[in-house]
Write a structure and sequence with these properties.
single chain; 99 residues; alpha+beta; 5-stranded mixed beta sheet
């Protein structure tokens, strides 16, 4: 099964990278973004492995998530694995409603 990154999820990854590039180092930025991307790749073997996202239950898609470090990869599965967002768990969960 293919992993597809939405534009929002790509923007999230870029923002994470640039944040750590400025606040930490290039190595840290690459490490964190790489860990997130590898987690998404692991979903290919077990696409339904993530828990249902309780805050998004009323949506058309059945959102799931997996946690990597301080981030939730929020996704849904149809013909492919669709990464909707990379949500920083240190944020107010109400912001998740913007997905």
């Amino acid at each position: 099964m293919i992993v597809f990154w939405t534009n929002e999820a790509i923007d999230d990854l870029e923002n994470i990278f640039y944040y750590y590039l400025i606040e930490a180092s290039r190595e840290t930025a690459y490490r964190i973004v790489t860990e997130i991307m590898l987690s998404a790749d692991r979903l290919q073997a077990y696409p339904e492995s993530g828990q249902r996202e309780e805050l998004l239950l009323g949506r058309k898609q059945k959102y799931r998530y997996i946690v990597t470090g301080n981030y939730k990869l929020i996704y849904w599965v149809d013909e492919r694995i669709n990464i909707a967002s990379v949500f920083d768990c240190r944020q107010n969960p109400v912001k998740m409603d913007l997905i």
